Amino acid sequence: MNKILKQILILVCLIAVLILPYFVFAGNPALDKLEQVAEAKGPYADVTDTTISEIVGTAVSAFLGLLGVIFIILMLLAGYNWMTAAGDEEKINKAKKTIQRAIIGLIIVVGSYAIWSFIWYQFITKD
To answer: What are the residue boundaries of the structural domains of the chain, listed by start?
Structure first.
């Protein structure tokens, strides 16, 4: 009897987790912004053309963001390899080298972002 009661309770909890999101009637902010853009009113009414420098800036920011994601993946992979090394010194050293290389790569990425940001604000966007 106790086992059946436990299974029923788990089933009720799972159903509640699946059904409760349908009871949230909050507005969608992204949809509101899209409607404002379509109607050309609100803060999006004065949309201007995008310049080449803005496109390049966006591309560089996206690329540097991608490199940050690669850093996180490398750190997770190295940590996993270290944790599953089971005392094998060769695997531990390989994981340590991966962490060191990932940190060096992150320093290079942050440095390049700093240089890009300096160039962007001092020379490109200067009026």
So the answer is: 1-47, 50-127
Distance from chain centroid for Cα 117: 20
For tokens 């089971």, name the residue: 86
Predicted model pTM: 0.54
Structure tokens at 14: 């799972």
CA-to-CA distance for 116 and 110, rounded, in angstroms? 10
59 or 34, higher pLDDT: 59
Residue among 77, 14, 27, 96 nearest 6 (CA): 14
**Structure tokens that stand for 23 in this block:** 């009871």
Instruction: Report the alpha-carbon distance of residue 127 to residue 120 in Å, rounded.
Output: 12
